[in-house]
From TrEMBL:
Pfam families: AcetylCoA_hyd_C. Keywords: Hydrolase. Residues 441-608 form the Acetyl-CoA hydrolase/transferase C-terminal domain. This is Acetyl-CoA hydrolase. GO terms for biological process: acetate metabolic process. The keyword Hydrolase applies. It comes from Marinobacter nauticus (Marinobacter hydrocarbonoclasticus). InterPro entries: AcetylCoA_hyd_C, AcetylCoA_hyd_C_sf, ActCoA_hydro, NagB/RpiA_transferase-like. Gene3D superfamilies: 4-hydroxybutyrate coenzyme like domains, Acetyl-CoA hydrolase/transferase C-terminal domain. The keyword Nuclease does not apply. GO terms for molecular function: acetate CoA-transferase activity; hydrolase activity.
């Protein structure tokens, strides 16, 4: 067992000394995914390993967040001021930066089970050390790697009336389950060390996320060196993203359950759900313009078009910032309770959240309480808020206050009258509107979490990913409870590509390289098939630009898949909804072709016919062949006056100047993605000039207003060329110049 738990230090190096004393110099360090990494401790341990080659350090984690640097000189010029503004006061994860630059020392290895998308495609070391696992198997696989030190960023309890307690806050996802396993390993004779690093900027959450400080061996607490939390900036939501989000919002069932992932597609869904709830006329105008109900019948059975009267319950491995917006707008309000029979009574409408005499009768008829009431019945009713806290069972009677006690028989008229007057609670207690496993997002999101009212905070339970991501029994709730809570589940995730036979490509490429990781996607897809009324929704843009050319993301086949075809369900692009569940292969092929970009429909159909999956005489209906970006633009304007679908519906971290420059640089990057394109772009840029000084402010922002040397002069011309490409093309007679 541990020699002494909960020992506080104010110096990270002292923590490292203590850890080495406990476990020696062969250290396998487990760190949480994303935000919950203890940066001060991790940096001190990594620096110690760099200085002492006798230390063998293996870091096992996922999603090591870094401020963007940029690869080209233009990207560096663009990102420099932005990075300083957003991340200037946040210490970097030193090991992650060295991984990024291929500078890890020989005695340090880093293995991750989830990458920031595309960040390590060309990093051979990280590709070799990647651990492929479902999120629900991550604890098992971390233990298999031999983790003997665990580090975690924690929120201290003293500011929240909980001295001696800590909160996992952003990352109870894996740590809640790995802590007891490490203690078992310790009892079996393997030295371990659990390290908590406190940070007062980290929002506090109770429920499952709250633990006693003594569960940790070493606690780093030095308020003066607390640092702001790593911020993931808001990204632009494109017109295609918005329409995908709109279609997804039509599949949300009032009174249902929502899981959604990170990124612009998730933001688009949340935004459209808010429009559906608050501006239903505008939402319905787009709905009717697209003829969603007629074109995609799945919406009639599984979706909805009215505001959310009952509201939604969130159950998502990642609590994205969108859930806070849904909470603020009164959409995330369906509360679930930690009792399956009670929850099922609510689901069936036999019980409301307001206690009443009729509710007592329902509970009695369901066998949840007896009559006459016993002590355990009264305790149960008090715990769930049906009776007030001061009510107790004493001497065979129900004591309502110091002066009044009544018989425990619910059929007694006097008892019923007294209970109604003095004992019934105001609302059922213990309701949770959001179960989340981890969170990361913009600083605005963290501030909103810190500013939650006590009542709002109490409706959020940060918990184990193994409770959230599948239906198996867990110490926080068994399968029966989970199925009762997760009615009308909509599990919405994104994919990179989708094959015509129904396979999703979400995490890797055909050559074996890993783009990101499986994470929890497989878990949610599989769970949607197990839950009555549940649906898996995979969203993807119909096209992407690759090598300077537009290509389809719906493809005939691909040499890698994340979700196999036997788990095909609902797929959404900006061109509609493909309901694939239970369909024949021919219908699956055709429904996917129907929501593909029209530039690629004929070739996809030809491949399908050649494979014998579609009848040879089938022809594309005329209304299928209108899947164009112009159709998307028209649909988003159908809501009427005003910008219903802005690029940044929840605010932005980039300035207007930076957004314009970013768009120009993105265009340049696409244009120079091939050797021929690079030469052509440079040739055109050499002729570009800004004689009237229209771009002075933008060039100044890039540090190129007064260039010196060939590289800076070329960069200046490239920026001017990129900005000129954004200008509207001028009409000259019948031709466009």
């Amino acid at each position: 067992m541990a020699e002494q738990n909960g020992v506080y230090y104010d110096d990270a190096n002292a923590c490292v000394d203590r850890v080495i004393e406990r476990v020696g110099k062969r250290i396998t360090l487990g760190l949480p995914l994303g935000l919950g990494k203890p940066v001060r401790f991790a940096n001190a341990l990594y620096q110690r390993a760099k200085n002492d080659p006798e230390i063998q350090l293996h870091i096992v984690t996922a999603l090591s967040l870094l401020a963007p640097e940029g690869a080209s000189s233009l990207e560096k010029r663009f990102l420099g001021p932005f990075t300083k503004r957003l991340y200037g006061n946040i210490p970097e994860l030193d090991y992650a930066r060295d991984v990024n630059r291929n500078r890890l020392p020989d005695n340090v290895t880093v293995s991750e089970f989830f990458f920031k998308a595309g960040s390590y495609l060309n990093n051979q070391s990280q590709q070799r050390h990647y651990v492929c696992t479902n999120y629900t198997h991550a604890v098992r696989d971390l233990m298999a790697q031999g983790v003997n030190v665990l580090g975690q960023l924690m929120s201290p309890g003293e500011d929240h009336g909980q001295p001696g307690h800590l909160s996992f806050s952003c990352n109870p996802d894996l740590t809640l389950d790995i802590l007891p396993l490490l203690r078992e390993r310790e009892v079996a004779g393997t030295p371990v060390a659990m390290v908590a690093e406190l940070n007062h900027h980290l929002p506090w959450f109770g429920h499952h996320a709250e633990v006693e400080a003594s569960q940790f061996d070493v606690i780093l607490s030095h308020r003066a060196s607390d640092y702001p939390l790593f911020s993931a900036p808001q990204m632009a939501v494109s017109p295609a993203d918005h329409l995908i989000g709109f279609y997804a919002s039509s599949l949300l069932k009032d009174g249902g359950t929502l899981q959604v992932g990170i990124g612009s597609l998730g933001a688009a869904l949340v935004h459209s759900a808010i429009i559906r709830h608050k501006h239903n006329d505008a939402w319905k105008a787009v709905f009717d313009h697209l003829q969603v109900q007629d074109q995609f019948p799945v919406v009639q059975e599984y979706g909805g078009s009215e505001p959310f009267e009952q509201g939604l319950y969130g159950c998502s491995e990642m609590m994205v910032d969108g859930f806070v917006y849904l909470l603020q707008e009164g959409i995330l309000k369906r509360e679930v309770y930690n009792h399956p029979e009670l929850q099922n009574l609510i689901n069936r409408g036999e019980l409301t959240e307001t206690p009443s005499l009729e509710a007592l009768d329902v509970l009695h008829n369901a066998g949840l309480i007896a009559s006459p009431l016993r002590a355990r019945d009264v305790n149960w009713l008090v715990r769930h808020g049906v009776l007030r806290d001061h009510v107790e069972f004493k001497g065979g009677r129900i004591r309502l206050n110091e002066e009044v006690s009544v018989e425990a028989d619910l059929s007694n008229a006097d008892t019923r009258k007294a209970l109604e007057a003095l004992a019934l609670g105001d609302k059922l207690a213990g309701g949770i509107a959001m179960h989340g496993g981890f969170y990361v997002g913009p600083e605005k999101f963290y501030q909103a979490l810190r500013e939650l009212s006590d009542d709002q905070r109490d409706k959020i339970c940060m918990t184990s990913v193994n409770f959230i991501n599948h239906l198996y029994d867990h110490r926080f709730g068994d399968q029966k409870l989970k199925m009762a809570q997760r009615v009308h589940g909509r599990f919405i995730n994104s994919a990179m590509m989708y094959t015509l036979n129904g396979s999703a490509v979400s995490d890797g490429l055909a050559d074996g390289r890993v783009v990101s990781g499986v994470g929890g996607q497989y878990n949610f897809v599989a769970m949607a098939h197990e839950l009555p009324g549940g649906r898996s929704i995979l969203a993807l843009r119909a096209t992407r630009v690759s090598g300077g050319k537009t290509v389809s993301n719906i493809v005939f086949n691909y040499a890698h898949c994340t979700i196999p075809r036997h788990l095909r369900d609902i797929v959404i692009t900006e061109y509609g909804i493909a309901d694939l569940r239970g369909q024949s292969d021919e219908q699956v092929f055709l429904r996917l072709i129907r929501i593909a970009d029209s530039r690629f429909q004929e070739s996809l159909l030809a491949q399908a016919k050649k494979a014998g999956k579609v009848k040879a005489d089938f022809k594309l209906p005329a209304h299928w062949r209108q899947n164009t970006p112009e159709k998307v633009a028209r649909a988003l304007k159908a809501g009427g006056e005003g910008d219903w679908f802005p690029a940044f519906p929840f605010g932005k971290d980039f300035t207007d100047e930076e957004l314009k420059l970013g768009k120009a640089l993105k265009g340049l990057k696409a244009a120079t993605s091939t050797p021929r394109g690079k030469l052509a772009t440079i040739w055109q840029a050499l002729k570009a000039d800004d004689e009237k000084g229209r771009y002075d402010a933008l060039l100044d922002r890039m540090g190129l207003k007064k260039p010196s040397g060939f590289r800076e002069k070329l960069d200046r011309k490239l920026v001017i060329h990129g900005l000129q490409k954004l200008e509207p093309r001028k009409e000259t007679g019948n031709k466009t110049s």
